[in-house]
Amino acid sequence: MSTRIELQEKDYSDLFPVGEDLQSQIGGRRRREGLARILFMVVLIVAISALATLLYTIINAAFGMTAIINTVEPDTIVADVGHDPEETGLADLTYDELVVVLEGSVTNNVGRRLERDQRFYEDRFVFENEATWSEICASSQPPTGCDAAPRDKSNVLQLVNERVVEPDVVKTWELIPSLFEREAIEAEIRSEEFQAANPGARPEFRAWLNWQFVTSPQSPNPETAGVRTAILGSLWVIALTVLFAFPVGVGAAIYLEEFARPNRLNQMIQTNINNLAGVPSIIYGMLGLAILVRVLEPITSGSFLGEGGSATENGRTIISAGLTLGLLILPVVIIASQEALRAVPNSMRAAGLALGATKWQTIRKHILPAAMPGVLTGSILATARALGETAPLVVVGASTFIITDPSGPFSKFTVLPIQIFQWTSRPQDEFRNIAAAAILVLLILLIVMNATAVFLRNRYSRSN
Amino acid sequence: MTAEARSVAVPAPFKKRRRVGETLIRGFLFACGALSVATTVGIVVVLSQQALLFFLDDEVTFAEFFSGTSWQPAIGQFGIWPLVLATLMVSVIAMVVALPLGLASAIYLSEYASQRVRAVIKPILEVLAGIPTVVYGYFALTFMTPMLRSIFGVSNVEIFNQASAGVVVGILIIPLISSLAEDALHAVPSTLREAAYALGATRLEVATRVVVPAALSGITAAFVVAISRAIGETMVVAIAAGASPKNFTFGDDSLFGYILNPFEAGETMTGHIVRISGGDVSYNTIDYNSIFAIGLTLFLVTLGLNMLSRRFVERFREKYE
């Protein structure tokens, strides 16, 4: 009782504020609190608007008005081969009709060159004749057309577009002005001044991301270029990456979590994996270049199988790229799988062993299935990362320009991110547009992969 | 125990059978783990070997490499400073952007946000983290650069410049800082927070005077990892920062007008590696070997930073777990 009175009597104002000072201090603190809250909201809005701006920039460039000049209008071509342009489009023509169109429009020299690259028909020639063909194929450097399969329809359609229609985009507008100021843009294109500089130009709303873009091979003209080779290349590379990284990564995780005793060696492996996860991706590219491309060239070029031949005389192949990315995502797969294995309760291990199962039987039948959702999610996310990787593949040696589809692990390759990188680096506007379209394709692929991860995780966790 | 002794002592049904399959599987699994060590060894050997060839070349001296301010392989000048300086410039700008934004969003998510807000914000940050870096490169060149040019004047800002690349690298590492820092804030025991609230502290005071200091080592670890990521980032700088080294001479070039001017073009270490190796460089030329010397420098710096960050993480683990 006496101490309490003593406390009340003592003056604490030099230690902390009392009375009015206290009130004003509390007010100040509350104001700071409110300010901080606003500041945090602003920061969040900035972070979110970064994402919004990113998507806006890409979509804005992937669609929009263009001023386009066709050397020959597609409708004229369709009418020339005897179809009604109202009903039939260029893409609806048959293979034979397209070849006829091509035959009637390109010079014999160009035609022969095209045929030497790749034949039009297995059994007959369009531009070449039998005698010269067998002569050049017997020469020391036969052209690719001698053993390649004949062209298919999308390929010839591309040729018709490139060589006959020859669309030339002379000016492009972004999506937003195209939507809201369409009339002004059309008026500008039709104006005498514009027509004088670009005779025959007509306005066209162009979705740079369209079906033709997805199914056409690469081309030097942005108007007819597509990403088919790049998509197939990406899928091939990713398939090899997964085939390598998934079993090895899960195996390493099982070893570290289930078998490894905590000795020096195993601790070193663990530390090493953690450190590897932080190594910049470009360093893996250099590893791939020096080991896979150069030292293991006889294997990665496919020459040990007698494959490849003239097409790939070096190790800059799909398998080198796939294994490089495999090494890159390996630490991520291992760490994710370890976490999933660690989450499996110990009672499960004990139960398996108590029933007389061997260690491996317990792991295979009980622990691994239980850990599978986590393992799969981690692995798919890592694979998604590999799908977007660019730098290591530039170093490993992606081809800058290929138009033939990859045919196996020993083909030369290009992948979507590389294609985006190259198109972005070009100064012309149209290449920016197709780069944006290619980015959308890549993002769609990534969304599909992530959705698969979520789907698999849900399915597995329900069945267990 | 020898095989003989066992066959005498243990009755047949309980004899431990040798399981060849199990041993093989164990061996395979160990090989999987050991492959990661082989990868590291491979990286170190490959980088050092080619870097050694580079330094053994007559045109190159060790001293010039680490002190020279001009990188012009065509005339035999190999000073790494222009590349290092551009790398540092981009990383510093990136950290200036990413540190406050990343830390603030971590604090907001950990200390302020309701479950509903978190459920919206976290996926957005994850999406940002999942976008390929080449897309950020496109963003830097087609959005950030024109924006900087319209703000600071077309004549002041070059088409390829380090500022644009730096800002975009910063945006790219916000999710990394935010998620690592949030983990660290989350690991702070809630008793500390409750004690502070009981004393009448506001949320801001709890966050800045109790939680952040308690999680400081974890937050530092996040920063260090982010710096390492910014240094190793490649595609954004390859696309937006410039495609030739910004050579300089002290005294002749103005320090802030040129050497340290973020609006000038400049090639970073990673950007240089990509440009040289993208052009089908032939093996065993000095160009080929030089990128491995740069790669080795890059590897050692990032490895050092990552190990440092691991130290910090271990410190905050010890404290609260």
Molecular structure report:
Chain A is mainly α. Chain A has 3 domains: 2-64; 66-211, no CATH class; 228-463, MetI-like (MetI-like fold, Orthogonal Bundle), CATH 1.10.3720.10. In chain A, 66% of the residues lie in helices and 4% in strands. Chain A contains 21 helices and 3 strands. Chain A has helices at 2-9, 19-62, 74-80, 95-105, 108-117, 130-138, 153-165, 175-180, 182-190, 192-197, 211-215, 228-259, 264-276, 281-295, 297-300, 318-342, 346-354, 359-388, 391-396, 416-425, 429-463; strands spanning 63-69, 168-172, 202-207. Chain A is flat, with a radius of gyration of 32 Å. Chain A starts with a helix and ends with a helix. The model of chain A is unreliable at 308-312 (pLDDT under 50). Helices cover 74% and strands 1% of the residues of chain B. The relative contact order of chain B is 0.14. In chain B, strands 1-2 form a two-stranded antiparallel ribbon. Chain B is built from 14 helices and 2 strands. In chain B, helix 8 (190-198) packs antiparallel against helix 9. Chain B has 2 domains: 15-56; 62-320, MetI-like fold (Orthogonal Bundle). By secondary structure, chain B is an all-alpha fold. Chains A and B meet through helix 2, helix 12, helix 13, helix 14 and helix 16 of A and helix 2, helix 4, helix 5, helix 6 and helix 7 of B.
